[in-house]
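User: Please predict the structure of the protein below. I'd like the answer in structure-token form so I can feed it into my own downstream comparison script.

Assistant: Understood. Taking the following sequence of 289 residues as input:
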Amino acid sequence: MDDKILQEKREKTALVLTNVYNLPSMSAIMMEVSRLLDDPSTNTDKLSKMIGKDQGLSTKILSIANSPLYGLPRKVSTIDFAILIIGFQDIKNIVIALSMIDSFKNKSDKNLNQEEFWKHSIITGNAAKRIAEDLGFRIGGEAFVAGLLHDLGIPVIHKYFHSSFLEIIEAVNEGGIFLEAEFNTLGMTHAEIGRFLAAKWNLPAPLVDAVIHHHDPGKSEENEVLTAVVHLADYMTQFLELGAFYWDSTNKLDPAVLEILKFENEEAVNEFMEKYRELFTKELEAIRL
């Protein structure tokens, strides 16, 4: 494709995204929760009462806290206890990530089932946290958020670039690859769109980096371990065929993961992933929407 045409597409996409960012996108309750979490005087009782006003948010937080992959040592039945055991900082990250996903939710159709997308996002986030901890990396909270948000660009394309979304699917049906079809249609991939929005929401640089490079962690510039963990968690949903999302069907494991996460060879990676099969199965059974 001509470079000039590609640049024009990229500029047009960026302009639309700027307008998307300017739309009111965080509910009043989520904004108040975020404000409370920034206030050093906030106590658990005040925070839990505010979160409890949003039934959807409460349900999702409790679902995450009780996730087999998230790995908390006991059943969490109240928001108060969830806050205590997860911690203020991770609760804040969870609230921000959930609000971002909720902001760009669209009606389900034959090309994007919101329930399947949510399940894939939550299982990738929870798996990324668990993998990081199992491998001895102290980045569980960041891994969860990056995993939850890694595919944020897909529902954004579906909602705000719907004709382009259909063009991408048509190109893939004719034998193309999703990332290439996105780039040829929009001048950006869903990873770049996710990065654009994550940066606009002032997420930390390592999280933004993990979003844009979740398909190619070898190119990570901020925290290659975080990015590689998210990539592996995302790929595992395809490998295990549990919680997979069809938009990832043409993706492959980046060989850079072996070196970054210290695996001896690809067979060792496959054996590592296979050990999570039962947890992934339990995770899908436990997810509440």
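That's the full token string. The chain has a mean pLDDT of 85.
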